[in-house]
Every structure is written in C-alpha cells, then in structure tokens.
Write a structure and sequence with these properties.
alpha/beta
Length: 341
Amino acid sequence: MTAPRPRLVHTAAELSALPDRPGQRAVVMTMGALHEGHATLIRAARDQAGPDGLVVVTVFVNPLQFGAGEDLDRYPRTLEADLVLAGAAGADVVFAPGVDEVYPGGAPRIRIAAGPMGDVLEGASRPGHFDGVLTVVGKLLHLTRPDVALFGQKDAQQLAVIERMVTDLNFGVRIVGVPTVREDDGLALSSRNRYLSAAERRTALALSRALFAARDRLAAEEALRDRASCTARTAYRAHDRSAALAALGEDRAAADAHALAHAVATPLRAPAVARAAAHAVLEDAARLDPPLALDYVALVDPADFTEVPDTYEGEAVLAVAAKVGTTRLIDNIRLTFGAPR
C-alpha cells in the first residue's frame, strides 16, 4: 500500500492557513536530501504528535549557515524523493519555501547570535555557522508554530545551541533530541556520505571506530577498576592479596595481580582514557590512503560544549570532525563518567 503523499506548501501564507488539529503539532527541520536518519526523526515526530496531531517537515537549504567555499551550490536538492520518504515516515505537510520566502528583501539584518557556545568546535571551524542555524530555526519555529521540534543527536552542538536558544529566549516549544542513526558499517547517516568514494568511505569509518574505541576502553577500564576494588575489599578482610585473589577465583599470573594493584592505587581519570583511545584510532587513520584529515576531537560538557577535565564526572559528548577527500564529516557519542553502568 502506497503511503499518502504529504501536502506540499511553499509560502508562509499557505502554512498559516493549515487547519488546527486536536493533537500536538510536531516539526522536523531539514535541508532536504532526506535519508533514513530523517525518516527516524519524522517517525519520532509522528509518535510525539499522535494520530490526531500534525507533523510538518521543513525542507530549506539555508544559505546563512554555509561559509565561503562550502558546498551550498552542490548541496543535493531532491524534493520529489523527499516527499515520498516524508510521506512514508508519517509527515502530513512538507514546507519547502524558497530563499525569498524565508528572507524577503535579502539576507536578514537582524540575526540570532549563538554566543560563546557557537564559537568552539564547529563554530571555530565554520565561523558564523551557528548564527545562521539559530536565525533560520527561530524563523521556522515562528512560522510552523509547533508544540515540539525534533533534531538529531548526530549534530550534537547544533542541538545544544538550539536548546539553549529556546530556554534563554523563552520559545514556547519543547525540543527533543533523537539518537544518531548509523549505517550497517557504523558510519553515521549523512547527506554528505554520497560524496564519498569507496576508498574514502573506508577511511571515513575511522570516525565511528574512534568513538566506539573510547566507549569500549572506558567500559574495560571501569570493569577492571570494579574488579580491583572488589579485590581490595577482600584483601582487607583476608589481610593477604593471594587469599583475596583465590577468593575471587582469580588464580592468575603475577601480571594480573600487578594490574589490579595498580588500578587500586591509581585514580581513574576516565576522560583521559577515552580521549587516548579515540586519538589512537584517528592517528592511524591519518596514515591511510586516502588519509583522514582531523579537524578536532573533543570531550565536552553537553550543557555548554566546554572541554571537560580529567576529573570530570557526569555525561559528556565525545565529538569528532574530519575531512576525507573534499568531504567534511562529523560524529559524536555520549559517554557517562563516574556513574554506575
């Protein structure tokens, strides 16, 4: 059975004329070239809106968020295919305005500034990018008037600055972050993946491998520390390390006993462990053919995107950006330090 085609509107007047529905209104903002990651967002919006609500998908390639030399002109425009995917995922309306509709009279003289959060990482690499993002998101929120807006966690810094804007400027909308969708090989879904050659794609997998290596190394270090802590408690009761190891069923070589003793004696600086694991993968990728050209790898507080210290406890975002060939890619993963797993 073919999914119903969503209603296509191009103007603010058409959008404002849409009838109200008894359920929630949910919006998903995109620049088009929709893929399964966007479909996941739209399905989540359908869940938020409920059967009686309205799901609006915006398709607009925003010139304000592209810097000099970036891929505005070659950014894919696939509106017909976007309508099919959006309808299949549960969208009711697709709002696809032209530049003149969003910015009548040319580039806006008044813009929303991202502040210090917009000057680091992606903002440092792409000056003014987040001012452009917030300006268009602010306008589209006013035009679509949603109860809830959904954004992907893949663009973690974008999600963070939008959440901050909504809080600081008292927008009457709830922001929901949706987990990153990945391809079978681990590469985060992105419209830019289509630019990668087969060889470039193999190199690009280092981004997700670096993130997963950090996650796995962190888990291994914490498991060792938990075991060491258990051993230390048993040793305290037995007053003898060998008795403690035997009590745990750990009749291992001296190297294992040494590792446990070291884990007990050395404070766990988990952020440093995660950073080192990610860097190791990315350094190897820089020697591939074609090489990965690292822009940044950072472990940051999700509230303000400042780098966290090695003693940090709580949730953090491990973010990475790099170029493979001419294609710039980003990815991230959320890690938790100092809390039970």
